[in-house]
C-alpha cells in the first residue's frame, strides 16, 4: 500500500519538496495544500518579475555568511544541496541561469514564469496533486498525521512537510504549537528605512552606486548601492542592514539614527587631506558644475545645499567653514529613521521554528518522526540577492530525499 506525503505551503520550498519527493519515490502519493488561490507567488514577483533564483556564491563558508540567522545549521545542510546543485537541477530541466554583475542569478529568459513553469511541469510529470484555498488549522499525530482544514475537510498522511513561509506574528504559529515545537518570535527582515518629511526624499529615484551606512550605537555597518525613495532610503545596502539588524531594530521600535558616508573611499580625515589637491585641480570651476566624486547631479546639489555652500562659487573660493561642513556632510550625514516599509512585496521574517529542534541533515523534527520543515517557517533568513530562495531549494530537496528514503 502506498504511503502519503502532505506538503503544507505552495511556495518555493514546499513545491521543491513535493516534486522531488514524488520523483525520488514514484510509489509515494504526494499532496500539496496551499491556503491561498496562488502558487509560487514569491517566485512570481522576485527580482522585479525575473526571479532571483539563487546567488553565484559557491563556497559553503562564504555562502553561510549571507544568512543573519541559521549559519551553523546551513553549514551542514549546504553539504547536501547548495548553489551548484540548484543550477544543475534547473539546467537538467532546460532552465539555464545567468549571473549578473552583483552575483544574483536569474533565468536567461529574464522571466520568473520560466521557473514557475518548470516546477509545474515537474508536479504534473510526477503526479503531485495540488489543492488551493485549503488552510490547515490543526494537526494531530494519530497513526501518522491527521490534518483539519478551515473548510471542514480532513486529511491523513504518514509524512508531513510544513513549508508555510514566515509569519509576521507569533500567534499565527498557534496551529503548530500542538506539535510541541518552540518558536523564535518573528520580526520583519528586509525592509527600507523611513525618513518622514526629510528633504532628501525629494530626490526619490536617485541611486548611488556605493555608499556606506552605519546604524549609530551598534556595530552594524554595510557598504553597497543605495536608493533614495519617496519615503526614505532603500537599495541593497539598506536591505542588508535591515536583515542583520532585524531584532535590534524591532526592539528600538524602528526609531534610530544612521550615518551615511556618500563617498566611502574616504573618511572625514582622509577627505580633508585630499581636499587641497581637489581645490587646486578644480580651482576655476564652479562647484555646481564639477563634482569629483561621481555622485548623481541631483544628490550633489542637495549635499551642497545641506552644507550651506553656494553652488555658483568656484572651488578656489570655498571658505574653510563651508569646506569643513561639506566634508562632514559627504562622509557622515546623520539621519533619524522613523519606521520601516516592506521591500516591494518580498516579505521576509526572521524567526520561526527553533533550529535546535530540526535535524539540518534531513529537515526532520527532532521531536516527531516523519514531520519535516522547509523554507522560511524555520528560523532562517538571508540577505537580499537570492539567498532566501537558495534556503528554500536546499531545505525542500533535503526533506524530499529523506522522505523518499523513509517511505
Outline the structure in words.
With 407 residues, this protein is α+β, with helices and mostly antiparallel strands. The chain has two domains: 4-188 and 345-406, FAD/NAD(P)-binding domain; 192-342, no CATH class. It contains 13 helices and 20 strands. The strands form five sheets. It has a seven-stranded antiparallel beta sheet with strand order 17-16-13-14-15-12-18. Helix 1 packs parallel to helix 13 and helix 2 (41-49) packs antiparallel against helix 6. It starts with a strand and ends with a helix. The mean pLDDT is 96.
Shape: elongated
Please tell me the CATH architecture of the largest domain by its name: 3-Layer(bba) Sandwich
Distance between the termini: 11 Å
Query: Helical region count?
Result: 13
CATH superfamily of the largest domain: FAD/NAD(P)-binding domain
Total count of strands = 20
Structural class, from helix and strand content? Answer: alpha+beta
| Highest CATH level, the class of the largest domain | Alpha Beta
Major sheet, described briefly? Answer: 7 strands, antiparallel
What is the count of distinct domains?
2
User: If strands are numbered along the chain, what order do they take across the biggest sheet?
Assistant: 17-16-13-14-15-12-18
Mean pLDDT: 96
- Give the proportion of residues in helices: 25-40%
Computed over alpha carbons, the radius of gyration is 25 Å
- Stated plainly, the CATH topology of the largest domain is called FAD/NAD(P)-binding domain
Strand content: 15-25%
